[in-house]
Amino acid sequence: MSLLRGKIAAITGAVTGIGRAITVEYIKQGACVAVNYYPDEKSQIQYEDLEKEISDSAKLIGVPGDISKPEAGQDLVGKAVEKWGRLDVFVSNAGICEFAEFLTMPPELVNKTISTNLNGAFFAVQAAAQQMSKQSPTGGSIIGISSISALVGGAGQTHYTPTKAGITSLMQSTACALGKYGIRCNALLPGTIRTQLNDEDLADEDKKKYMEGRIPLGRLGMTTDLAGPAVFLASDMSTYVTGAQLLVDGGLFVNLQ
C-alpha cells in the first residue's frame, strides 16, 4: 500500500541527510516531491545524484534557493503548484549547525544560524500555509524538523538549540493559527542522527561509543529513521494529529542523566 499516493510535497534542504531520506521515502510511498537545495555547485551535484536514485523522475523537481531568504520558500511552493496544481505536504528541514564556543562566538555565525534555521523556516512555512489555506477544507500537513536539542542544552550549540526550540514552538503556534483551514502542523525531534552536520564531531570513536551507550536502543540514528515518522505525519493516518512533537531518538531523551 502506498501511503502518500497522489500527494504533492515540498521539502527544504532535501538533497542531503534527513531531507534526502524523507524525499526518497515519500516518492516510494507515491508522492510527487519538489526539493529545495542551496544554490551552489556542490548541492547541484547532490541533486543530480538524487535524480539518479529516483526511478520515476516525473515525481521529482529541484528548486535551488537560499532558504534564509523569504523568496526561496515562495519559489519552492510556486514551482510545486505550477508543476502539480496544489501542495499537500510541506517539510521544513533545511538547517545548519557549526559547533562553537559561546564566549568567542562571532555575531556572523549567530545571525547566519538564526537566519537559516528559524527565520528561513518561518517564511517557508508561511509560503506553504498561504497555498494550503486556499485549498481549505482539504488543507494539508506541515512538518517542522526540530531536534532533541530543543529540549536539552548543548555547550557548543548555544546558537543552534534556540533555533530548534523555535521550530517546535512555531509548529505549536501554526497548529493553532491554521487549524481552521484544515492544516495540521507537527514537529519531528531527531536525536543523534549521523548526517553531514555532525560527521566530524562523531569521528571521535570514544565520543561515538559514549553517545551510543546513552541510547537505550544502542545505536546512533540513521537518516532513514526519520522517514517513517515523516510519512505518518504526511499521511491520512494522522488526520487528527496537530501541534504534536514526536521524538525520534532511540530513547535518548528519557535516558538522559
From TrEMBL:
One Pfam family matching this protein: adh_short_C2
InterPro entries: NAD(P)-bd_dom_sf, SDR_fam
A GO BP entry: fatty acid biosynthetic process
Transmembrane segments annotated in the record for this chain: none
Keyword terms, alphabetized: NADP, Oxidoreductase, Rhamnose metabolism
Keyword presence, 4Fe-4S: no
Gene Ontology molecular-function annotations: oxidoreductase activity, acting on the CH-OH group of donors, NAD or NADP as acceptor; quinone binding
Keyword Acyltransferase carried by entry: no
Family: Belongs to the short-chain dehydrogenases/reductases (SDR) family.
Protein name: Uncharacterized protein
